[in-house]
Design goal:
This protein is α/β, with parallel strands linked by helices. Helices cover 36% and strands 15% of the residues. It has helices at 3-16, 39-44, 60-67, 93-104, 138-154, 172-191, 206-209, 232-239, 250-255, 265-280, and strands spanning 27-29, 36-38, 73-74, 110-117, 120-127, 158-164, 196-204, 218-221, 261-262. The strands form 2 sheets. It has a 7-stranded mixed beta sheet, with helices on both faces. Strands 1-2 form a two-stranded antiparallel sheet. Helix 5 packs parallel to helix 6. It starts with a helix and ends in a 31-residue tail after the last helix. The chain binds zinc ion. Zinc ion is lined by residues 30, 32-33, 35, 49, 51-52, 54. It is found in: Cytoplasm. Its EC number is 2.1.3.15.
C-alpha cells in the first residue's frame, strides 16, 4: 500500500465516476497492411482501410446500407428444407446451422431486399460470408429464386453481391442442384429484359463462381477480391506450375477480360446508379421513321412451259 492506492486512486475514481461502458474492439487491425484503424474511421470509410485501401469483408445487411438508399426493406424468404440429408461430421449439420442462424440473425447465407439506388428501383441480394462461409445450399438457392422472381414482378434490375466458399458440402447433391436452379432464376430476369448485375466480393469461389455469378450482364468486382473456382494451391499442385502474381484477384481478372469493372466500395452506389440509368432509360436518339413501302405490282409469272395438264 502506498499513497497512490490509498489516496490518489479513490480521488481519481470519484473525479471521473464509474468507468463508462466502452465498446470492445475500438481499434481494428487491417489484415493487409497490419496498421491499426479506429472503429469510427473504419465505419466512415465503409470498412476500407484508411492506410492502404484494402477492402475488408462486410456483412450482407451492412452491404445493403452502403449501397441502397435509406429505407430499403428486407424480404421474408420462403423456408427451405433444413438438413435434408441428416448430415453429420464431427457435429450435426443442423447444430451448425442453428448456431449460424442465431449468430447472424437470419435463416441462411443470403439477404434479399428491395429498395432503390439514387432513386432507381432495384432488387438486391447479398451473401453473408460469416454464415457458414456463404456456402450455397437449398436456402441460398431459394433466396436467389425469390430475388429473381421479385425483380421480374417489380420490373426492377437484379443486383447480387456474392461472397461464398461455394456449394454447401453438408447438403451434398442438393447443394449442387442450386447451380442450375440459380442460373435458371437469373435467366428469368434476362428474359424479362431487365438488367442482371453481379458484384463479386471477396471471396467468391466454387459452385457460386461456376453458376449464376459469372452470368451477369455486367460483371463488377471490388478491388483485391479473390475470385476463382478452385483455390490457387490446388491448381498449382494439379498443373505443377507456379501461378502468376495476383492470380484470381479482381485486377488480374479485369486485365484478362473476365470482368467489366473493378469498382471501389465508395464509388459502388454511383456506378450502379449510372449503369442502371444507362440500361433502363429509353434511347434518346430518335431514329428516322422507316420509308413508306412502295407497293409495286409483282411481275406476272411466265406461263409454265410444257403441255397443259388435263383437268
Ligand atoms: Zn491496410
Amino acid at each position: 500500500m502506498n499513497w497512490i492506492s490509498e489516496w490518489a486512486l479513490p480521488k481519481i475514481k470519484t473525479l471521473f465516476g464509474a468507468p463508462r461502458e466502452v465498446p470492445e474492439n475500438l481499434w481494428h487491425k487491417c489484415p493487409a497492411c497490419e496498421q491499426m484503424i479506429f472503429h469510427r474511421d473504419l465505419e466512415r470509410n465503409l470498412h476500407v482501410c484508411t492506410h492502404c485501401g484494402h477492402h475488408m469483408r462486410v456483412g450482407a445487411r451492412t452491404r445493403m446500407d452502403y449501397t441502397l438508399d435509406e429505407g430499403w426493406q428486407r424480404i421474408e424468404l420462403p423456408k427451405a428444407p433444413q438438413d435434408p440429408l441428416r448430415f453429420r461430421d464431427q457435429r450435426r449439420y443442423v447444430e451448425r446451422l442453428r448456431e449460424a442462424q442465431a449468430k447472424a440473425g437470419q435463416e441462411d447465407a443470403v439477404v434479399v431486399a428491395h429498395g432503390s439506388i439514387e432513386g432507381n428501383r432495384v432488387v438486391a441480394a447479398a451473401f453473408e460470408f460469416s454464415f457458414l462461409g456463404g456456402s450455397m445450399g437449398a436456402g441460398v438457392g431459394e433466396a436467389l429464386v425469390t430475388a429473381a422472381r421479385l425483380a421480374v414482378l417489380q420490373d426492377a434490375p437484379l443486383i447480387v453481391f456474392t461472397a461464398s466458399g461455394g456449394a454447401r458440402m453438408q447438403e451434398g447433391a442438393i447443394s449442387l442442384m442450386q447451380m442450375p436452379r440459380t442460373v435458371i432464376a437469373t435467366r428469368m430476369v434476362k428474359e424479362a429484359g431487365l438488367p442482371f448485375i453481379v458484384v463479386l466480393c471477396d471471396p467468391t469461389t466454387g459452385g457460386v463462381t461456376a453458376s449464376f455469378a459469372m452470368l451477369g450482364d455486367i460483371q463488377i468486382a471490388e478491388p483485391g477480391a479473390m475470385i476463382g473456382f478452385a483455390g490457387a494451391r490446388v491448381i498449382e499442385q494439379t498443373v505443377r506450375e507456379k501461378l502468376p502474381e495476383g492470380f484470381q484477384r479482381a485486377e488480374y481478372l479485369l486485365e484478362h477480360g473476365i470482368l467489366d469493372l473493378v469498382v471501389k466500395r465508395g464509388e459502388m452506389r454511383a456506378t450502379l446508379a449510372r449503369l442502371i440509368g444507362l440500361l433502363r432509360t429509353p434511347e434518346r436518339v430518335v431514329a428516322p421513321p422507316p420509308a413508306e413501302p412502295v407497293a409495286e405490282p409483282l411481275p406476272a409469272l411466265p406461263a409454265p412451259e410444257g403441255p397443259a395438264v388435263p383437268a
